Inverse folding.
């Protein structure tokens, strides 16, 4: 993508039609049934928060979407077409990128080289430093990032919020359509958290489908459009943010049910017996 293209092409509009749909997803590791008939919709131009207690299956679900773990059963649909994702390269080819909690950045490299790590551009068998720097600047400018003074700054000297920004910018550099963020504000201070949340919102405003994994419901209610709740490996509810309260989400996370939301009472009792 050239700079001219970036300037003249408007971002895709938000859509009510899911760009990513999962139906009836199951995944087991030996005798442990981690995901049980999970359904999920991710819409373009929206932030979908994926929440649940430790052990609910969040990490397994996103690793399945990313092709790290193959699903045992279920339908995986992307842009309205059934797909088979057998590895991370298949997910990347679709336009799915994941920013994991550890960020996977190299402290001894600068911002440009971290953004192109493993996908370096070459010219006459040499690194095309000029082209990579231009694309890095273009991507950061497109996300309205103003906190990085230079794309040639070594990552080791960046703050936590700046490092998270670099990892997110790397994910969207490759014409991504869906970006998955795993606890992007974990261990950040108040100001840096606000910075990262603004960037998360900007991703969706630029037309991407965003999956945000977070234990912080304040963050979730600040930026999410949809909230999907996993409980003991089951997707017990996916709702619009404005249709639920924080207390209801907490009840869904801890018990799989809140009033008329979540599992039927009989199903909840049965889940407890199974657990």
């Amino acid at each position: 993508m050239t700079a001219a293209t970036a300037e003249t092409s408007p971002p895709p509009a938000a859509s009510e039609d899911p760009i990513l749909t999962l139906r009836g997803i199951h995944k087991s590791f030996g005798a442990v049934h981690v995901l049980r008939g999970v359904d999920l919709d991710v819409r373009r131009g929206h932030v979908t928060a994926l929440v649940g207690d430790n052990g609910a299956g969040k990490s397994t679900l996103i690793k399945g979407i990313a092709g790290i773990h193959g699903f045992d059963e279920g339908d995986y649909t992307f842009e309205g077409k059934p797909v088979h994702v057998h590895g991370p390269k298949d997910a990347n080819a679709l336009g799915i990128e994941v920013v994991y909690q550890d960020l996977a950045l190299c402290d001894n490299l600068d911002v440009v080289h971290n953004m192109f790590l493993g996908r370096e551009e070459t010219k006459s068998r040499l690194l095309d430093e000029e082209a990579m720097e231009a694309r890095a600047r273009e991507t950061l400018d497109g996300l309205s990032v103003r906190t990085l003074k230079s794309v040639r700054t070594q990552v080791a000297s960046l703050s936590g919020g700046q490092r998270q920004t670099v990892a997110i910018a790397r994910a969207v550099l490759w014409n991504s359509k869906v970006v998955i963020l795993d606890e992007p504000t974990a261990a950040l201070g108040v100001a840096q958290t606000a910075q990262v949340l603004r960037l998360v919102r900007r991703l969706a405003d630029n037309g991407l489908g965003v999956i945000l994994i977070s234990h912080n419901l304040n963050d979730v209610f600040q930026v999410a459009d949809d909230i999907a709740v996993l409980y003991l490996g089951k997707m017990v509810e996916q709702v619009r943010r404005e249709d639920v309260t924080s207390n209801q989400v907490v009840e869904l996370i801890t018990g799989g049910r809140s009033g008329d939301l979540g599992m039927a009472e009989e199903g909840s009792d049965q889940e407890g017996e199974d657990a």
